[in-house]
Amino acid sequence: PGEGTEETPLPLVLSRFQVSEEFGFLLPNPLTELPAPYGPWMEIARDLPQLLASRRLRSQVHQMPQLSTGHLRRREELHLAHLVLSFVTMGYIWQEGEEGTVKILPRNLAVPFWEVSQALGLPPILSHADFVLANWRRKDPNGNLDTIISLPGGDSLRGFILVTLLVEKAAVPGIKAIVQAVGALLQRDEEMLLGALRALAEAIGDMIQALRRMHDHVDPAVFYAVIRIFLSGWRDNPAMPQGLVYEGVSEEPMAFSGGSAAQSTVLHAFDELLGIRHSEESTAFLHRMRDYMPPPHRAFVEAIGRAPSLRQHLLSSSHLQLRAAFNQCVSALAELRSYHITIVTKYISIAAAKAKAGRAEPGDRAAPSMGKPPSALETKGTGGSHIFSFLKSVRDTTREGMITA
């Protein structure tokens, strides 16, 4: 006992941070149905693509009963409620595109969304924790996956969510390798550390392979013109400069960032272990994105930061294989970030240019036309960052993390 009682003790144990041995940061086997009293929420959420295509979502929300969140007991119920309410909220805000946003989220949606968010320690907006981590189900015994809740975008939206989920799943051996590496540092066991670093580099390689599947499952025209706006937040977004008033919660508008890959705990954990230091501006953005992670996952990243420094250990070690394995991890991480830039170029820059030229391919038939693509997002990520300067900066600072001589 003493001053350090709040600190998470080392070595790291995944279960203490709600991280699964099998699924990593993904929610294991999410619930797909809420308790009976929440039927009105589920009904609207299940019908979101149709309600948005016919511009009827806002009127449906206005007729929704004001429900108490008191019947939501288990963490899984709260996660599904947050998923449902976040999707309905994004649909409500962006139903009419960026020209027709609203300033107020009605009380019958805002109050329960706020309460569920407070219970989970998540912000009241759609984040990576909802969109990907808690939004999957097994469609059949063969292990085929599907989403639980959807938005406009048809197969491309489904592909975008599920490919991102496969990247998270591919990261699991890497998450376990972090735990092993921290244990090895505490025990000063260099062979165990070598095994952990090799496993981490391999996992990052598998994540790149998973990300490559994006090309097979997501149509760039649909992603850019239809899907992207629904991931946008009301912070650093010219379409909603004032933010959003959550009626019944606060009279002052609040501003939250939209969903972003920067909200995935995986890369934060890898950076923390490898001692990667980003620029001041990038670091500030990444640290802000940690507020969009489930608090136990954020605590996991912070606990890695309190462990003995891997980089310092290697700088003082003469073990050349260890340094080589470390540099392989850094190199793989830089390659993953480079590949992410390739994807963003295809799905945003090139798609934006085509949309501007009026040459957008008539993509996914299941997607309703949402009018013109959001101009506020031509150079920014849905999380609000200046997307290319941010991605190139973190890629370059990752490369600089190599240990030479």
Automatic annotation (TrEMBL):
Membrane-spanning residues: none
Record bears the keyword Disulfide bond: no
Gene3D superfamilies associated with the record: 1.20.58.480
Pfam families, per database record: IDO (PF01231)
InterPro entries xref list: Indolamine_dOase, Trp/Indoleamine_2_3_dOase-like
Binding sites annotated in the UniProt record for heme b: H340
Keywords: Dioxygenase, Heme, Immunity, Iron, Metal-binding, Oxidoreductase, Tryptophan catabolism
Assigned GO CC terms: cytoplasm
Residue segments, region Disordered: 359-383
Protein name: I23O2 dioxygenase
Gene: Ido2
